[in-house]
């Protein structure tokens, strides 16, 4: 009987040791390839900005195949927080070495990312900054790699101000209200309007969605016929506003501005349908995050620091591409 108990304990110890070894080796590498496995988790791949981000990351991995393996994930809807949380949980279960994430919500993703860090996974936040207070409450530090969204939006707003006169009325289409980048873009737009003496006569969230922006912009134009411009917190919403302005017969009277510099908006700027946008270099943004994650994997004692990435004003004069 004692021999059976001893044998069982040996087998149990061996199984535990094997499971630990299969998760990550001492260097933080995936055992299958000897390279770290990085998971990129984004918001809606239906949004061209994030599909461009994915392609940029995939190209970078293809150019550096010996450095890391890449897993790319995205959600179907910008607001599908539950699915994005589930993706993080799946990556934890898959024993990835690093997660680079553009969170759909600045607060809701923090608890599951804390669990990822507790599991020994390096986590890097890109695009939409996680909420500082929630991070503090959860007792976790996660570096942010991305642009200053407020500064970028202020550049767009200042450019609009140069085309209008003091007292003109402007409407703003906001992103998801719980997203830090949406909050910062609204703040940048609003600050630029205040400094120029322009009036924000209406602002509503269209939750990053083109169709919803079309509906809301149409309502804004009907309720506020004096509107001279619509500032949209992303390019998908700007395109929705373009359609609304056209339907209202005001394409020559209302200026449209966006944020992201997706290809459809590049064309719209060339055609004069959109005045300007901001380029935060989506094809490079995930790469910056991946590079930072790889550095942290190489040196676990490295100081976790935020990294500010470029954001540029794009107009017809500057060149939309």
TrEMBL record:
Residues 1-21 form the signal peptide. InterPro entries: Bact_Solute-Bind_Prot2, Peripla_BP_I, SBP_2_dom. One of its GO terms (molecular function) is carbohydrate binding. Its main location: other. SUPFAM superfamilies: Periplasmic binding protein-like I. GO terms for cellular component: outer membrane-bounded periplasmic space. Keywords: Signal. It holds the Pfam family Peripla_BP_4. Residues 38-298 form the Periplasmic binding protein domain. It is found in: Cell envelope. PANTHER family: ABC TRANSPORTER PERIPLASMIC-BINDING PROTEIN YPHF, D-XYLOSE-BINDING PERIPLASMIC PROTEIN. Belongs to the bacterial solute-binding protein 2 family. This is LacI family transcriptional regulator. It comes from Blastopirellula marina.
